[in-house]
């Protein structure tokens, strides 16, 4: 007689259900493991005072440098100052996919899982140590994160599988609970370490501590008093001076470089007879100049936000270069920063008498970290990418033939004086406003040449001269206002400026690449009936 063994009744989930269970389990193993690696690395990096050595940031920075120019251009255009958030989100998304994949293979073949983790850590280490200005020790946070993550993975795998007879005999529930507990613990470690790292990285940084200790000297050559007509505030529009916290920020740095002003050095070298090195105190002992200057980015679209005016305090650059003794034939000044940026400035622009400065102060404070602490270059009349190197450490006198700077290598113009531009700040585009007397107002700039007129046209009608507020020099923007009797309906408003030489902004639209946008800022508004 044959005994037919009764088969246990099991509920087999459908295909979709099986996939979901497998994916969930893979995620439950992989995500906390990756999270532990990154969170622990982040907190160690922050505790060591080198937050930029957190592997996610190092990978992100590597991605930025490797991004082809059109894509980077697109990112800045589409996401503006959020481009870094978008990029980091992309890096995190790839990480999640990798981590889930790791969880999936680790659940089946542990050895492959550990190998996957090693690859994961390896990518981080390579990214960290190949960053400019990195040292071997910078691999430490990533390695510590990797080791702790490996332990987390071992523990999790132990509880995620029933491998021994004894395990199998145990009630499934316990096993599952243990699995959830270990996974939850790993996730908690990851989250708290990550949060701790971010918080530490914000406050306990060498840069912010050093900046707090800086005392700026009074300028020997103070900024001229602002003319009475300057509008210190402007309802709905741009105040003459842009507050530091509102000043636009454009750079390739994922974490703000942390520089101790006491350890900082500026080297002046290249085609000079007397190369020299300056400490921060050396600079502060020189006579200081203070000026109001408008700075803007070549990536600013017509009507865009990447422009601001600040009161800068700094050391005049031309005398310092003359002391070094520039050799004949040199035509380019290359600035280098601690984070590996290179910026090429025409030497004649630095030497022609304009207020080219090594800037240490912005609106009465030491330079904010985001704007280049402790020292940045500023050359009025040039877009930032050819004249405003932040976190400056090195000045090389050379030629345009001999060296292409960072953005020039990516196709942007080597010489880029700012183009005349004007912007309508109020009314806001695509808003609905009440009929009657309306102030149309904004700013216009053409550093070095100055602004001589701003005209506004409503509904393609006659150009009407706007009222121009005063400005202290041709290197700052000018505010403008025009009163308009708004009638119900949809209206378009456009603006154009004329510079100090009498040249009016061309109507033809050009994109920002390769040397700055052109065209008239045009908006439409609805006036309610
Ligand atoms: N080290 C460094 N300096 C830099 C940049 C950068 O990416 N790295 N960006 C430049 C660009 S493109 C501009 S427009 C200005 C912006 O200065 P801000 O961020 O202080 O407004 O800085 C310039 N200096
Ligand atoms: Mo820029």
From TrEMBL:
Pfam families with a match to the protein in the record: Oxidored_molyb
The keyword DNA repair is assigned to this record: no
SUPFAM superfamilies found in the cross-reference section: E set domains, Oxidoreductase molybdopterin-binding domain
GO process terms (BP): sulfur compound metabolic process
MF terms (GO), sorted A to Z: heme binding; molybdopterin cofactor binding; sulfite oxidase activity
Domain Oxidoreductase molybdopterin-binding: 254-407
TM segment ranges: 85-105, 112-133, 139-159, 179-201
Keyword check for Magnesium: no
Keywords for this protein: Membrane, Transmembrane, Transmembrane helix
Protein name per Swiss-Prot or TrEMBL: Oxidoreductase
Organism expressing this protein natively: Virgisporangium aurantiacum
Source lineage: Bacteria, Bacillati, Actinomycetota, Actinomycetes, Micromonosporales
């Amino acid at each position: 007689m044959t005994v037919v063994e009764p088969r246990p009744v099991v509920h087999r989930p459908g295909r979709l259900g099986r996939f979901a269970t497998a994916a969930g389990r893979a995620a439950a193993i992989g995500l906390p493991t990756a999270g532990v690696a990154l969170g622990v690395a982040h907190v160690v990096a922050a505790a060591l005072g080198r937050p930029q050595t957190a592997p996610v940031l190092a990978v992100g920075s590597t991605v930025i440098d490797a991004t082809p120019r059109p894509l980077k251009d697109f990112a800045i255009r589409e996401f503006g100052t959020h481009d870094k958030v978008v990029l980091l989100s992309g890096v995190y998304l790839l990480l999640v996919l990798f981590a889930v994949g790791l969880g999936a293979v680790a659940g089946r073949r542990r050895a492959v899982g550990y190998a996957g983790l090693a690859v994961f850590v390896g990518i981080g280490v390579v990214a960290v140590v190949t960053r400019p200005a990195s040292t071997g020790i910078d691999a430490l946070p990533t390695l510590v994160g990797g080791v702790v993550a490996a332990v987390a993975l071992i523990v999790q795998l132990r509880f995620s599988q029933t491998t021994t007879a004894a395990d199998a005999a145990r009630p499934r529930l316990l096993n599952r609970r243990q699995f959830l507990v270990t996974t939850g613990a790993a996730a908690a470690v990851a989250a708290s370490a990550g949060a701790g790292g971010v918080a530490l990285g914000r406050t306990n940084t060498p840069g912010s501590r050093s900046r707090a200790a800086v005392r700026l000297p009074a300028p020997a050559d103070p900024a001229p008093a602002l003319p009475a007509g300057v509008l210190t505030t402007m309802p709905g529009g741009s105040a003459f001076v842009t507050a530091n916290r509102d000043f636009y920020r454009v750079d390739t740095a994922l974490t703000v470089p942390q520089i101790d002003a006491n350890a900082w050095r500026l080297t002046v070298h290249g085609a000079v007879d007397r190369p020299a090195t300056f400490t921060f105190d050396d600079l502060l002992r020189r006579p200081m100049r203070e000026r109001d200057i408008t700075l803007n980015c070549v990536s600013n679209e017509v009507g865009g936000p990447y422009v601001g005016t600040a009161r800068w305090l700094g050391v005049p650059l031309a005398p310092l270069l003359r002391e070094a003794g520039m050799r004949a034939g040199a035509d380019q000044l290359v600035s280098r920063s601690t984070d590996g940026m290179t910026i090429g400035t025409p030497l004649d622009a630095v030497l022609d008498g304009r207020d080219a400065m090594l800037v240490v102060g912005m609106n009465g404070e030491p330079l904010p970290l985001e704007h280049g602490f402790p020292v940045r270059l500023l050359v009025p009349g040039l877009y930032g990418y050819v004249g405003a190197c932040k976190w400056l450490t090195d000045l090389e006198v050379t030629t345009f033939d001999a060296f292409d700077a960072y953005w020039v290598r990516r196709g942007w113009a080597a010489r880029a004086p700012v183009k005349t531009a004007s912007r309508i700040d109020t009314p806001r585009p695509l808003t609905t406003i009440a009929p009657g007397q309306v102030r149309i107002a904004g700013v216009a700039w053409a550093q070095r040449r100055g602004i001589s007129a701003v005209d506004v046209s409503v509904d393609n009608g006659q150009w009407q001269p706007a009222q121009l507020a005063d400005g202290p020099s041709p290197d700052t923007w000018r505010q403008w206002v025009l009163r308009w009797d708004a009638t119900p309906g949809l209206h378009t408003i456009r603006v154009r400026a004329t510079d100090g030489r009498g040249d009016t902004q061309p109507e033809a639209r050009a994109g920002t690449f390769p040397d700055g946008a052109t065209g008239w800022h045009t908006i439409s508004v609805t006036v309610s009936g």
